[in-house]
Specification:
The chain is α/β, with parallel strands linked by helices. The chain has helices at residues 27-44, 58-65, 82-92, 105-114, 131-140, 154-157, 162-169, 179-197, 276-288, 292-304, 314-321, 328-337, 358-372; strands at residues 8-10, 13-15, 48-51, 71-75, 98-101, 119-124, 141-151, 200-209, 214-222, 231-236, 243-246, 263-269, 312-313, 342-344, 351-354. The chain has 13 helices and 15 strands. Pfam families: TRM.
């Protein structure tokens, strides 16, 4: 039976969003989640998904149709969306392979724990901050399983409301040029700390900022050790534009090379944003599925995975150097010639990630601009 002509398509799913919130621009986040889920199933031999805030059900459809999930628990707190969800899932999913419920996500997660019903992938696509659900979602996840969190709380993580960030994330967020990355690192940092409090550890699989929304997928594993060096502070000097990381042991002793005192954001995650091996496997699958845009994005993520925990917008380099905005590829090439690591970043097409100091970036940018004339 063909779906109605006015239904939407995304991947292999056809659906009617009805009155549910549906953001087409967020498709890239769903694409990456499906790829990660499919890789997980290939590696582990099974995939049971808990879609805690399903909306119209498009994620649930794609987890089964594309990633091969054997079972999907489809939950949506708004019971008024039941007719939409029921119709969408009935049209696209195999019978007796899913369950639809309408309850708050927190008691749902605890119910899973009490029943010893643990999931391979838990998707928490919340509005605002996901903090009310981070700790409880950990209780429903299988050891080795994946958790996928969303944050639309860019004002708070961007340093515009530092007291609010302290209240919500337990971290003080300051404003600086790399706040898009800060949003991802604050979110990962909270998940790391919450897991560590339970004697567990998380490993980032991938981290995505699509221009409006932060999404991070992590794997839950047994804690081998607690590495506080990856959970610390980011220091930024408003005077010279230089970044540096700061550990807990350095608190009270953080100075900039220019002699000024930088501002600190954190605590937050300072380790890799992505798992390189997982990205490679996902990219290979994206190529097999003929998803070239995802493959390109995953390649870019692989380049930035182990770079320093900040980026430099080209506009900021131009402003500080009182010059035209430098051409990105010329700047990257110039930095690499000087033996610095440098790459593009998915966080901002007009920014770079590098371990070169800001002073060197300015020097190389001036030379690049001069040669381009």
């Amino acid at each position: 039976m063909s779906p109605p002509a006015d239904w939407l398509w995304e991947g292999k799913a056809t659906f009617d969003p009805g009155s549910a919130f549906y953001r087409p621009k967020s498709k890239v986040g769903r694409d990456l989640a499906v790829l990660a889920a499919a890789v997980y199933r290939q590696q582990r031999g099974q995939l049971r998904v808990l879609d805690a805030m399903t909306g119209c059900g498009v994620r649930a459809l794609r987890y089964q149709l594309e990633a091969g999930a054997e079972w999907v628990w489809v939950n949506e707190a708004n019971a008024e969306l039941n007719p939409v969800i029921t119709a969408n899932l009935a049209a696209g999913m195999r019978s007796r392979t899913y369950r639809i419920t309408h309850q708050d996500a927190n008691p749902l997660f605890f119910s899973c724990y009490q029943q010893r019903d643990f999931y391979d992938l838990i998707d928490v696509d919340s509005f605002g901050s996901p903090m009310p659900f981070v700790n409880t979602a950990l209780w429903a996840a299988k050891l080795g399983g994946l958790l996928y969190f969303t944050s639309t709380d860019g004002r708070t993580t961007g340093g515009h409301a530092p007291d609010k960030s302290l209240q919500v994330y337990g971290a003080y967020a300051r404003a600086h040029p790399a706040v898009h990355e800060q949003g991802l690192r604050l979110l990962i940092g909270v998940i790391v700390q919450q897991a560590a409090a339970r004697g567990l550890q998380i490993q980032p699989i991938f981290s995505l900022f699509n221009g409006e929304i932060h999404r991070v997928m992590v794997r839950l594993v047994s804690q081998l050790d607690w590495d506080s060096d990856q959970y610390g502070f980011l220091a930024y000097c408003h005077d010279c534009g230089q970044y540096q990381t700061a550990s807990w042991r350095q608190l009270g002793r953080v100075d900039c090379r220019c002699g000024q005192t930088p501002v600190l954001s954190g605590p937050l995650w300072l380790g890799p944003l992505h798992n390189i091996e997982m990205l490679r496997t996902m990219r290979q699958l994206a190529l097999e599925w003929d998803w070239p845009q995802c493959a390109s994005l995953l390649t870019l993520m692989g380049h930035e995975a182990e770079m320093p925990p900040y980026c430099y917008p080209l506009g900021e380099i131009g402003r500080r150097g009182q010059m035209d905005i430098p051409q990105r590829d010329r700047l990257l090439a110039g930095l690499r010639v000087r033996d610095f690591r440098a790459c593009r970043t998915h966080l901002d097409a007009q920014a770079i990630k590098t371990d070169a100091p800001m002073a060197i970036c300015l020097e190389v940018a001036r030379k690049a601009n001069f040669e381009a004339k």
